[in-house]
Prior knowledge:
Layout: E1 2-9, H1 10-15, E2 27-38, E3 42-51, H2 58-63, H3 65-72, E4 74-83, E5 88-96, H4 99-108, E6 112-120, E7 124-131, H5 133-145, E8 151-156, H6 171-182, H7 194-201, H8 205-227
Antiparallel strand pairs: 1-7, 1-8, 2-3, 2-6, 3-5, 4-5, 6-7
Helix pairs in contact: 4-5, 6-8, 7-8
Amino acid sequence: MQTVTLEFRTSDLELLGLVPTQFFEKYEEVELLETLRLERGWRLQLLRVRRRGGLRRASELERESRRIRRAYGLQSFELVELRPRTRDYVLLVRQRNTATLRRLLALAGGHVNPTAPFLLTPERVVASFHGEEAALRRVLSKLQREGLPFQVVRSSPRPLLRTREPVPLTPRQQHLLVRAWTLGYYAVPRRITLTRLARLVGISPPAAGKLLRRAEGHLVAQFLAATAAPRPGSADER
Length: 238
């Protein structure tokens, strides 16, 4: 498995329909926080979108939802959070894939996934992908054959975010922990409630709380073992 980070000119991606034209007249940048589902015809992603000027209220976005979906080729979008201090929206977006993206996904064969960092600005797009080396090579070769200019910024045999030791968590615990961190569950002050987090991942709040507590317990135990922290009442404390 390999991770590769590419840099494109935003204008080139606009010509291919991968970035909506005139999008950056109203917005400064878009960060892909997480891809929840990636099919050939559509994708479901969690995005942070920074607006130029002040944020619009949730009620305004709801009133204009039809126009917004039509303008940006969205099947649906949901406001997860408003961040007025940084002028950011956090949005859950379901979007149709363009013909170009569908062809690239077909080449990838389900063996390549977007990962961090993934940032779009008016001038450039930094896009990272993790997957099987052969699948990544097929996709990069296709981009070169179609004459799409890009630069390889970084290439690594491992994901960009990885612990040195294996993390003793189940896939469900890892998935929920990543989602909780991304949405600000561990921020101070907390930016999302447990109830809201549970609804976004499709489980009950008690089940989400139990999964998080078990995951946190495993990580604390791993930390204590790694640092050989003295136990209460041990000789080191006397």
